[in-house]
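One example copied in:
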Amino acid sequence: MDRKKLVLLLGALVIAIGTALAARSMFAGSPAPEVAAAPVPQGPKVLVAQRALPTGTIITADAISFQQWPEELVKDAYFIDGEADINKLLGTVVRHQITAGEPVTQGSLVSPGDRGFLAAALGPGMRAVTIPVSAKTGVAGFVFPGDRVDLVLTQTVKGSEGQDLKAAETVLRNLRVLATDQSTEQTTNEEGKTVVRAFGTVTLEVTPKIAEKVAVAQTIGTLSLALRSIADNQAELEKAIASGDVVIPNDATPEEEEKLIRAAMARPVDKGATFSTGGDVSRFQRRSMPPTGSPAVAGSGAPAYAATVRSVPTVRVTRGKNTTAEPVSGGVGGLVNQQSSAMSQAGRTVPVAGAMLVK
């Protein structure tokens, strides 16, 4: 390489290093650009939905809350913090669907005692039925409007003889509680905590077919409530999707998918019932009923079937055109003697215990 090219290369290198140092010092001295913070809405707090509230939803404390709202967007129909008491809205029912984050208007809720309140709480095609309960059968009052319960039927099946059969059966599952007695709201104390109180009746949301089953079940035995966990609905939904009971189209939009899932989670279930009998609880109770017309067998937890009755062997004896059945006595020896006697008296052939004896 000649000297001229080497000088040019060194000069270019020096210029590049100088430019880099100048740029570094320039950017190091300038402050970083500030990101403008989102403006905080200036205005009163209005009541908004914390989640999607479909038509018929019973308002609970976790469904609504107050949130800051721009003053220029506040309307007269909104519930304003300081003017509206949120505790008085608990137990009301959503008349029109409210999306998550949308302000709750006064016209979108129906209060207990208003005309058409219970009808607004029912989903499309659903019915309301009322059953009597007590502290023992009603989960000691720990059931509130909006909860979901299973219905357990306890009955005593009387046999012709011996012990009666005690049985309990979960006949219906995932029923929504609409009201306890005639109240659809949760009573709270001065500290805002829910007050547990006793009630004598519970109103449930059911399908027309399930309403018939509830009416019949009340005449059979005693109905008890079993409170369901909130997490049960999601688990049963996944099971229903896996089994094909709930089908979500592949081309469904997120809104359509959410609607299908919500409807499936709210659907009462009247199949796949489970049961337990006295024999499952105590070895001194029956596990099942004996066959009809057979003497009952009392005792241990083994299946209580009828005692086996020993039948007396018989011999069919033919005399001319007449055939009679003669009992055999005296064991095997008696059987042989009667066979010989019958054969000597009348016949060429004598059927004995399913076989034909030929002389």
Observations:
- The chain is about 25% helix and 25% strand.
- Residues 296-310, 331-336, 338-359 have pLDDT under 50 and may be disordered.
- The helical segments are 3-29, 117-121, 208-220, 230-243, 254-265, 278-281, 331-345.
